[in-house]
Amino acid sequence: MSGHSKWATIKHKKGAADKARAKLWAKLIRQIEVAARAGGGDIDANPTLRTMVDKAKGASVPNDTIDRAIKRATGELEGVNYESVTYEGYGPDGVAIFVEALTDNRNRTSADVRHLFSKNGGSIAEPGAVAWQFERKGTFAVPRSVAEDDVLLVTADAGAEDLADEGTLWRVTCEPTSFTEVRAALEGASIPYEDADVSWFPKATVSIGDVEVARRILKLVDALDDHDDVQDVHANFDLTEAVLADVSGD
Asked: How many domains, in total, are found in the chain?
């Protein structure tokens, strides 16, 4: 799809290894609680919850931990009420950055995010300043071991919009409203997939060809992503092949 960067693909592959397991689990559990609170604790009746549970299981979160998170959200166990908030800003070279967070203290999180932007060469922006540059899409990563024609045949009728070649995998994208149907089609055809999510993607990307600029951008993105309340960071940059090879070894 337009805007899905090579760096985003590498980030997904590196994520579980680079991020401490406890921190990753905490973010996934928080997402499960919010999804269950919003749409109920029945996975079969709550597609968002199912997606979050699948992500958690993919990261090896224990089933009993997942069950407790759902029970906290539905009131069966005592828990914290998290609020969904977003932040917008600019990074080095004017890169647009869109941050999703879940917090039990909006003032604390807002101050922290503002500080991280400022400390790492970025600046916070007013709501709406960069959000228009992103759109929500469903996405699935399918191994290249599956034939392209097979993936197209199975997903097209279910509502898939695009199939992109990302080297070691096929990237299937769809409208959020078609996410459940595309997932069901892949599962029905026994086609494996990973990195299944409905998320924000840039409508277009800005190519970064300077290694030092790329490192400054990645430093800011990583600092934001490492904050406990931040669930995901989206940016509209892409890296040239030369720069990608250079920073991938950092």
From this structure: 3
